Amino acid sequence: MQRRSNASVFMGRSTSYRLESIVRVVKRSRTGRVWTLLAASVTVAALLLLLAAPGCGRRLAQGRMKVAASIVPLADFCRNVGGDRVEVRVMVPPGASPHTFEPTSGQMKFLSDARVLVVNGMSLESWATQVIGKIDNPGLVEVEAGRAVPKARLIMAVERSQTGGHDDRAAFDPHFWLDPGLAVYEVNAIRDGFIKADPAGKDVYRRNASDYVGMLEELDREIAAETSDFTRRKFVALHPAWTYFAERYGLEQVGVVEELPGKEPGASHIAGLISDIRTHDVKVVVAEPQLSSRAAEVIAREAGPGVVVVKLDPLGNPDNPEVDTYIKMMKHDVDVMRGAMR
Fold first, then answer.
1. Which of 73, 174, 67 has its CA nearest to residue 126?
2. Parent domain of 308
3. pLDDT value for 28
4. Which of 121, 153, 248, 274 could form a disulfide with 146 if both were Cys (CB 3.0 to 4.6 A apart)?
5. CB atoms inside a 10 Å sphere around CB 104
6. Strands laid side by side in the 252-256 sheet
7. In terms of domains, do 30 and 163 share one?
8. Model-level pTM greater than 0.85?
């Protein structure tokens, strides 16, 4: 909450005194005409004084700062940092993949009015650059949260030679929000973006971000404790979403079914993956609710008895109370994994 200036406090008290005086006069008046005229005067005076008070008209006109976030976890980060000062809308709806998403006309309209756009980056949202070029919003603050993650903590997704540059971040796996320790960097990047767009709220954003970072650090400790006694530590993933999670908690992602999202694997890739599952005694294939699990189920069945498919949600869903926040999503996924990995 912003502190009111002494001038605005005085104005509030003076206004209140004048209005009370007018009301007393109205109560002593005996004619309906006098009542009508004085009531109208009270209404007009109150409105003019309210609009004249420092900042009041601006707050009435603008309301909460509009923020667009590409995926549900980032939207949750934004709400935790912004609190009551922000209105956050998710671009990629629950159940959809950020890799293949296309924004609707309604979302384009929201973006044209937004003050901040938060994306993960690292080529996760291939649609973002094109969309930004189509909207007329020169004052939009763009936050690529993934840029805040130290390069030394990033994991390669493809060979550098395929990206055309030795420092092209498109070469790195973009799913680092699934490591709470790396999610902290994204939260702080969002904090800085909000302060740039709304300097008046800097103290709120800093305090909220600090509180939420503390919650993420506690989550990290809880997950480390939960995963430490997994009797099985190897798994195959539908697509490479869990690389950072595995790195953080000492697990091993032996392979992936879809090297590119939505692209079904060829026969040779499936055969090689089945061979790897048998060789490494993998018993868990991780699928996702946003993508078809058909290929994962075929591979698990062909790999032999005891291989199971479990669904972990890397994005969450505000309509599902089990995964409607980032922290609840991560705890839910660890619970599901625990049942298969012990």
1. 174
2. 229-341
3. 43
4. 121
5. 11
6. 252-256, 234-237, 284-287, 308-311
7. no
8. no
Burial class (CB in 10 A: 0-12, 13-18, 19+), 175: buried
Which tokens hold the place of 255? 């392979």
Question: Strands, E, within 79-176: which ranges?
Answer: 86-90, 116-119, 141-144
Q: What is the pLDDT of residue 168?
A: 57
Q: Give per-residue pLDDT as tens, 267-324.
A: 999 999 999 999 999 999 999 998 889 999 999 999 999 999 999 999 999 999 999 9
Cβ atoms of residues 135 and 91 within 8 Å: no
Q: Are residues 196 and 251 in the same domain?
A: no
Question: Are residues 11 and 102 both part of a single domain?
Answer: no
Convert the pLDDT of each residue in 21-30 to its tens digit: 433 433 444 4
Q: Which residues pair with 255 in a beta bridge?
A: 236
Which of 69, 65, 115, 72 has its CA nearest to residue 86?
65
Q: Which two tokens stand for residue 306?
A: 């005891």
Residues 252 and 294 both lie in one domain: yes
Tell me: do 214 and 294 sit in the same domain.
no
Within 10 angstroms of residue 142's Cβ, the number of other Cβ atoms is 13
Host H or E run for residue 284: strand 284-287
In DSSP terms, which residues pair with 314 in a beta bridge?
A: none
Report CA 294 to chain centroid distance, whole Å. Answer: 28
Assess whether 49 and 82 both reside in one domain.
no
Asked if residue 219 belongs to a domain, the reply is yes
For the chain, where are the alpha helices, taking DSSP H only? 6-28, 32-52, 56-62, 72-82, 105-113, 128-134, 180-197, 202-227, 243-249, 267-279, 294-303, 326-341
